[in-house]
Amino acid sequence: MERTLRRLTAKEVAHAKPPADRRALMLPDGGGLYLQVTRDRTHPERIHRSWVFRYEQDGRRHDVGIGRYDPNVVDLAGARERAKALRLQLLDGIDPLAARRQVTRDRLAQRAAAERAITFRECAKRCIASHEDGWTNAKHRAQWTQSLEQYAHPTLGDLAVDDITTAHVVKTLEPIWKEIPVTASRVRARIEKVLGWAAVRGFRSGDNPARWRGHLAELFPAKGKVRTVEHFAAMPFADVPAFVVELHQRDSLSARALEFLILTAARSGEITGATWHEIDLTAKTWTIPAKRMKAGKAHKVPLCDRALAILSALPRKDARIFPIERHALLDLLQQMRPGLTVHGFRSAFRDWCSERTNVANHVAEAALAHAIGDKVEAAYRRGDLFEKRRRLMADWAAWCARPVPTGATVTAIGAR
């Protein structure tokens, strides 16, 4: 029996190779154990050796690989031990190949279970990391992280993401929905985003319990019906000319930046992040790249004469036109007009467009870099809207520069 089971020697195994006219060879060691020897297809001089256990089950032959030959890992003795274990399985009525496949299925199931056990907190972290390259500034990431940490994680953070149900989401949102409806709505949307990301990645299954339409909309009133939305505190457009006069009296970079913001109807981040290479003095334009725009699309701003004068008077010691912190604009405005916000100047501009001009709504919206319809967008690309916006911004600059005596009557600007 010993001779039957042990036909190969260690030396034969180490040096075995197929004949010159064959690519592969199976060398039996006995008891179902074989040494499989093959030539490499690309490099015939290279020989590959591996162990195979061959058996019959229910009238069918099966081959089970039990490792690549390696004198330091699976040598002849090691292969014989593995073959012996498989023969014992057969004696117990166990199909070795079926048993191995079951082990693989169990391992994959355990891995899937482990993935589904990932917490909401960890999912949120990965979700934010996967989307942050598409966000225009670090503030957006901070808002996501802070709002989830403050409002969602106390209830959802340590739960397995696959275990989260509608009841958990409702428990998270109920305490804040009536108190801070705008924030609560954003938190709900972010929870929905995280759970949606988790589903796509295979970490959870089933419907998204944070979805709004046809689901949470049946449980919570829309945020607009909970309380009146508080808009940014804005300066009335009639007061802007007097404010600009006060800015002229201040010799600071923040004052010039704030005036430039008013004249271009831009956002704070667009102003403080503006660089000289975005300016074309010949064409009298400022092109803000898509990565710095809220909507993710490049925006070309026509520059009026006063805006160009501001730029011409500034030194070029830095790549940025206004190398100041973003909060510097708000700090200055709070000194001059406590309670107002810098963003409110965009509202003042929009109110002026509506009440003191006959400009079409889509032109005013384009000036603010708001989304506009497809047909209008096509016209925008042809340059038609840009020329209208150039005239509109020149009129706005004239309004900002006009001395308005107390009690004077304002004459509306003609149609465009």
Percent of residues in helices comes to: 40-55%
Let me know the number of strands.
7
Structural class: alpha+beta
CATH superfamily of the largest domain: Intergrase catalytic core
Uncertain segments are 408-416
User: How far is the N terminus from the C terminus?
Assistant: 105 Å
Q: What order do the SSEs take from the amino end to the carboxyl end, as H and E?
A: HHEEEEHHHHHHHHHHEEEHHHHHH
CATH class category label of the largest domain = Mainly Alpha
Number of helices: 18
CATH architecture of the largest domain: Orthogonal Bundle
- Trace the largest sheet across and list its strands: 1-2-3-4
Count of individual domains: 3
For the CA atoms, what is the radius of gyration?
Answer: 36 Å
Largest sheet: 4 strands, antiparallel
Average pLDDT confidence is 87
Estimate the global geometry from the Cα principal axes.
elongated
CATH topology of the largest domain: hpI Integrase, Chain A
Per DSSP, what share of the residues sits in E-state strands of 2 or more residues?
5-15%
Topology:
Elements: H1 2-5, H2 10-15, E1 24-30, E2 33-39, E3 47-57, E4 60-68, H3 76-91, H4 96-116, H5 120-131, H6 138-156, H7 166-177, H8 181-200, H9 223-226, H10 240-248, H11 253-264, H12 268-272, E5 279-280, E6 285-288, E7 299-302, H13 305-312, H14 327-336, H15 344-356, H16 361-367, H17 374-382, H18 384-401
Antiparallel strand pairs: 1-2, 2-3, 3-4, 5-6, 6-7
Summarize the entry for a quick read:
The chain folds into 3 domains: 2-114, 2-Layer Sandwich (Double Stranded RNA Binding Domain); 120-226, DNA polymerase, domain 1, CATH 1.10.150.130; 237-401, Intergrase catalytic core (hpI Integrase, Chain A, Orthogonal Bundle), CATH 1.10.443.
